[in-house]
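Hypothesis: this fold can be encoded by more than one sequence.
Test: take the structure tokens below, design a sequence, compare later.
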């Protein structure tokens, strides 16, 4: 589970402020995340802000070697496809914040979701290979 909107906006005040003239945010109930959709002409400006606030960028290949804190706490956002990215703050910091960069199929727009794990939520259940296989038939 991720932080609710007001909590997320509070911890991301500086980041959101730096996006003021670039992005408009709305709440995405499906992912418990702030969502901004923007045209591909704004990619450089958005990436510049993310690079200033996030310490790491993960892609489909590199996410496999991400620290456990990233893989465990970012959940579905770690299931990256080609051209999708995950930007993250330092997982050893006080609060983990991440941004999921999901380009649209037509190449004209990008969706950016900003989220943070809820520190009070129980840790995600670890599933071994046998549990996953059993889950397919259950």
């Amino acid at each position: 589970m991720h932080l609710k909107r007001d909590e997320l906006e509070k911890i991301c005040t500086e980041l959101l402020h730096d996006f003021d003239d670039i992005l408009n945010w709305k709440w995405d109930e499906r992912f418990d995340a702030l969502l901004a959709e923007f045209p591909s002409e704004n990619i450089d400006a958005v990436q510049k802000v993310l690079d200033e606030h996030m310490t790491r960028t993960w892609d489909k290949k590199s996410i496999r070697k991400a620290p456990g804190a990233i893989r465990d706490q970012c959940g579905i956002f770690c299931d990256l496809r080609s051209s999708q990215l995950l930007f993250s703050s330092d997982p050893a910091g006080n609060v983990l914040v991440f941004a999921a960069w999901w380009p649209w199929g037509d190449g004209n727009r990008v969706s950016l979701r900003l989220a943070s794990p809820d520190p009070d939520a129980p840790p995600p259940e670890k599933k071994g290979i046998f549990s996953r296989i059993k889950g397919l038939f259950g």
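Residues 5-137 form one domain. Helices lie at 5-11, 13-18, 43-53, 68-74, 129-137.
Hypothesis status: open.
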